[in-house]
C-alpha cells in the first residue's frame, strides 16, 4: 500500500536509503527448488553499479549482495528470499551543502512536503540506489524464466537525438554479448561510438542528457497478462515508469501507431513452417488484448536527463528563501547505460509474475 | 488477481461482457457522505456511448446506469457502490460470421488460447464496452475530487498526423465547454475541423486511424503518489495502458525529454506572488520523485487505429486453417473522441485512490 | 481494503444492503471451463433463505439468484462472475420504529459513528442478508472443489447447552442427506429433536439462543495453506469470524487442546493399507504448520444468540437520550440452522482459494 | 500471496529460517515522524527470547535487533522499516538426528510435500523463531498506538486445567508490572505459583502442556474494523491463529456465548458520567458488527502443547519407512509464557492497521 512492493505472485518488497546501513529486497512467492546462481545475481548488479566507465558516475561501490534466507543448499525453498546490499561509500559530506535546499527536478521538495521529514543525505529513499535491490530480485526472476526458456534483454537505443538502427533480436545471448562490448550498452557498434563521444562531451560541460532503452522478451508463451486492468503491457508500463527518471513508455507501434491506419497496423495471422501461430508484422508488440501472443514482446522506455548537473542553479530552501544549489558530487552524465539492467530486471519481474498468475487459470 | 480490479483504497472491480446481460462495476472504498449526482454520472456515460456522431460507430445504445447499493438518500454510505448498465443492442448476428476465425490484432486468439473458451459474440470481455463501467466509476471519483477542488480534463490532441497546438488549461470548465463544441473533442476549433474531415475520409474508405489524448489534472495537492513502485505517474501510466488500443504513455517532457540536456530540463523552483512553491517550467509534468508537486499534472496517451476495419482481411481460424475475416459490423473509424471520457475516468480513479492513500501517511 | 472482498486468487466481492435494490457478489479468479449448475447454486441459497420452518424467521423471500456475466453456454469463461439477488420483501415499515435508536448488540451505533450516515431500514450492510451473496459464491467454489473430489459439509453440533455426539464423516453425501431430514440441521436425529423443541420454547418466550456449527472438509490434498500468516486454519478462522454473530473458532483439539499434554496430543504418523501417510489421531484437525496434511479438516464455530429479541429493551438514541427498543419484526430464535450453508460456503471459498494458491508453488 | 505478509496499511513482511543467517521484518506503511525507542523494541524481544527461566527452553539467544532503514535521527521517515535479528545459537547438530524423519504434529511432512524441499535444520521457516520478527514489528505498532493512548496487554490465563480468576484491566501499566513479577506471566500471583509448579513437573517428565492467553485492548476509539470480511475480530482471529500452536480463538462471550439467551447476552447501551456511550455488560468484547464500540476489546487464545517432547516417539521417514524420533534438543515445556509478547504484538499490528484504515473513511 505504501508503494514499496511490486508483483502479485512473484512479489518483491524493497527497502533502504542511499545513505543508511543497507538496501535490500524480499522476494515472496518464488517457486521452490529453483537453483540459485549467486554469481549471476552479482554479475547483474555489476552492470548497474556506479564507477564502471568514464561515462558513468565516478562513485565506487562494490554493491555486494548477500542472501539472508529462502535458499538452502543452493536451491529456493519456497520461503521468502531476503537479499541485502550494504551501503559502502556513503560519502554524505558530498551532500551536506544541500541539506537545506530543494534541488531542482529532484524529489526533495515533494518528500519534504509529503512526509514532513527527509533523509537529506543524498536522495534517501528516492535515490536511484534503490534500483540495485530491483536488479538483485530481477536476477532471480531471470533465473526462473530461463528455466522455462524465456529471455529478457535490452540495450540503449537512443542517447539524446542519436538513435540506433533496428537490431537483430533472434539470439538473446549474442545480443547481450555484443552489447557488452561497449560502455554505452548499445548493440550497434557504430552508434555506440557516436553515443559515447556525445556523452563524454556533455560530461565535460557538467551537463547531462537523456536517452531511451529498448527491451525485448522472446520465447514467451501465449497467455500471459490478465484482462482488463492487469494487461501485460500495462504492468510492463507501470514497472518501467516506476524506474527513476523514466518519462515515457511505448510498446509495439507505440506513439507512431497513433499516426497509422488500421489497414496498415493490423498484424496478419499465419502459420509458420512448424505449424505455430505467428503474425506477419508485429505492430502489436507481442501483446493482443493485454495477453502475450507468442511473438517477441517489444517496448521502449524514455529517460529524462539526470537532474544533478555540475553547474550551479538557483532554487529555494525549506524556509522558502532563494538559494543556490552547487554543482558538486559524482553523478552520471547519462543514465541509460546503467539503466539497461534495471529495465531488464523490472521486465523479468513482470513476466515472472504473470507466468505464475497464468498457471492458475485453466481448470 | 485476475485483473478485474483497479486501485487500492478507492478500488473498483468491473464485470460483464459485450453481449451478456449487463456490464457493471463495484466501487469499494468511496468515503461516506459524498453526495451522488446520478445525472452527472449519466452525462459522463453519454460522452462515451456509441452512436454520437458520424465519426463514431453507428451502434445505438443508451448505456443507462442504475445504482444497486451504497447510496442512501442521495449520499454514499461507505458501503460498496454497485452500478450496472444493461446491454441493449446485442445484435450478435453481426458477429456470427466471425465465430470461428481470429480477427487480426484483436484479442480473439489470445483469449482462446489462455482460457480455452471464448464468448465469440463480439469481443466478450475484451470489448471496449467494458470501459463504460470505468466511466461510471470514474464519474464518482470525479465527484469526490471536485469536493476537494481537483479537476481532471482531457481532449483529443492528435488524429493521425494532425496535431493540435498547445491549449489553455487554466480553466477546466471553459476547457470542457470548448471541447464539447465539436464532435472530435479537440479544444482547438480549427484543428477539430481538420480532424473531423480526415476521420470522415478514413471512414468512407472503410479504414480506421489512431490518435492521441492529452489529459490535465489541476489543483492537485502536493504529496500524492507513493514511492517507489506506486509513483503517481506509474499508476497513471498503468491506468492508461489498461484502456483498449492504448500503445503509449508519456508525462511531462515525455519522449522528447529523452533528447534534452539536464540544464534545459530542470524545472527551477520559485515562490509565486501568494508565496506558493511553483516551478518556472513544467517538464516534470507536475510530478517529482513520483509525487505530485502542485503544478498541473500533464500526460499524453497514444491510441492505435481500431482493428476492426470494413475491409476483408485474410486470417486463420481456430482449427489453424486459412480463413477470411469479413468487413461487416458497426465500428468506430477513430476511437479517440469517445476515449476522452475514458481517459478522464481512469485519471480520476488514480487521483482519488492516491488522495485517500496520502491521507494515511503523516502521524 | 474497505473489507468487502475475500480471497486472493478465488476472490469475491459482495455488495448490497438489506433494504436496497439487490445484493450480489462478483467472483474474480474462478478458473475457466467450469460447468455451472444454476440449480445447485439456488438450492444452496434455499438452505439459507428465511421462512424455512417454525424455528427460523417468518420473513418470506425467494432469494432468486441471477448470473449477469462470466458464464457462456453453461461454463465459466475465466472472466468475473457477477450474481445478483434482488431484494423482495423489504417491509421496511417493520423497522421504522427503530430509526433513531441504537439496538443493543447490533451494529447501529458503530456504523453510525464510523460512517456518519446509516441506512436505518434494518441492518443495511450489517444485516445477515449479506451472507446470501456469500452462499451463492460459495456454491460456485463447491462446484470447483467437487471437480477435484473435495467435499465440504457442516451441521449444527450444539444449540444452547445441548450438544450432539460425534458423528460419522466418512460419507459427505450421506451426512448431508441425514442432516436435511430435520429443520435444525443436526445429523443426529435424537439431538435434533431435542434442539428443535428447545428453540421452539425460546421462540415462544420472544427470546433467542446461540449454538455451534461443526464443519468438515474431506479428501483435501496435502499442501493447502501458506505459511506463515495465511495458514489454512488462520484463513478458515477469519472466514468464520467474518460471519455475523460468530464469537469463536477452534480447529482440531481446539480449546480443549490447551488442557492436554504433548504426549497425548501428538498425532502419530503411519502408512495406511494403500501406502498413504495418515495420522492415528487427528488432534491437528487435518492441518500441521498451517498446511493441510491429508486428514479430514475439522473445525467448530460458536454463534452468539441473535440480538433482536421480541422483548422491549432500554437503550439510547442518536441524540444520546434514553429510549426503548420495541420487540417487533420477524427474526430467528436461533441462527445456527440457517448458518450451516453459510459456514460451508465460507469454508469452500477458503479451500478453493488455497487450492489455486497452492498450484503456483512448485517449479 | 505466499503468506509472509500481514496487514493492509500497516503492513509487515517477515523472512528468515531458524537456522539461516538472520530473520527479519519489513514494516511498510508506518506513518512518518514517529519517534522510535530501540530499547523498547529490544525489551519486547527479550520477553519472547529463549532461556528466560526454568520453565522455558534452555537455548540461549540474545535476539538482538538492528534497524537497517526507515528511521532517520530517531524518527520514522515514512519509508520501509527493515529490522533484522541475526541467528546466533544455530546448534544444528541438535537436529541432525531428525533430518530424515517427520516429527509428529510438526510441519515437517506438510512442508516436505508442499515444497519438495525442506530446511531440516530445525523447523526452518515453520519454527516459532519467526515470531521474533513479529514481536519487533509489533513493538513499533505499540509505539504508534501509545502515541494515540491505545494500550494492548495480555497475560497467561490458563495452563493445562489451571485457570486464573478474572483480573483488573483498568490500568495497563499496573497490569504489565504485576504480570512481569513471575516467570509464567500470569497477573494473579497465586495462580502463577500453581502454574509454575505444574509446568515444572511436566518438564521433568519430558512432556509439554498447553495453555491460554487472554488479551485486552483499552482506550481504542470507536470505528475500527471494516465490514463485512475484515471485521476487527476476524482480523484479530486470523492474527492469533497464525501464531504457531494456536488452536482456538474467542472474543467477548466466546464459546460460552453460544450457550446463552439473547436476553442475557445483549449489552445495554448507557451514557456514563462523562456523557460517553458505554455498555453495561461487555459480552460483545468491545466489538459490534465487526467495528470497535469503545469498550475494552477482550479475547482469548488457546495454545496446544508443544509438539517436541523429550520422549522417543514412533513415526515414519521421507522414504515412508517406520522410524523413531528421539527426544533431544532444548524446547519449551509450555509455550504460553513466551507467547504473551507474541499475542500482544499481533494484536497491536491488527489495531495499528485498522487505525490507519479507519482514517481514510469519512469525507
Automatic annotation (TrEMBL), chains A, B, C, D:
Keywords: Amino-acid biosynthesis, Aromatic amino acid biosynthesis, Disulfide bond, FAD, Flavoprotein, FMN, Lyase, NADP. NADP(+) binds at residues 48, 54. One of its GO terms (biological process) is chorismate biosynthetic process. It is an enzyme of class 4 (lyase). Signal peptide: none annotated. Pfam families: Chorismate_synt (PF01264). It catalyses: 5-O-(1-carboxyvinyl)-3-phosphoshikimate = chorismate + phosphate. It comes from the Bacteria. GO terms for molecular function: chorismate synthase activity; FMN binding; neurohypophyseal hormone activity. FMN binds at residues 125-127, 244-245, 289, 304-308, 330. Pathway: Metabolic intermediate biosynthesis; chorismate biosynthesis; chorismate from D-erythrose 4-phosphate and phosphoenolpyruvate: step 7/7. InterPro entries: Chorismate_synth, Chorismate_synth_AroC_sf, Chorismate_synthase_CS, Neurohypophysial_hormone_CS. Coiled coil: none annotated. Its cofactor is FMNH2. Reduced FMN (FMNH(2)). Its EC number is 4.2.3.5. One of its GO terms (cellular component) is cytosol. This reaction introduces a second double bond into the aromatic ring system. Belongs to the chorismate synthase family. Homotetramer. This is Chorismate synthase.
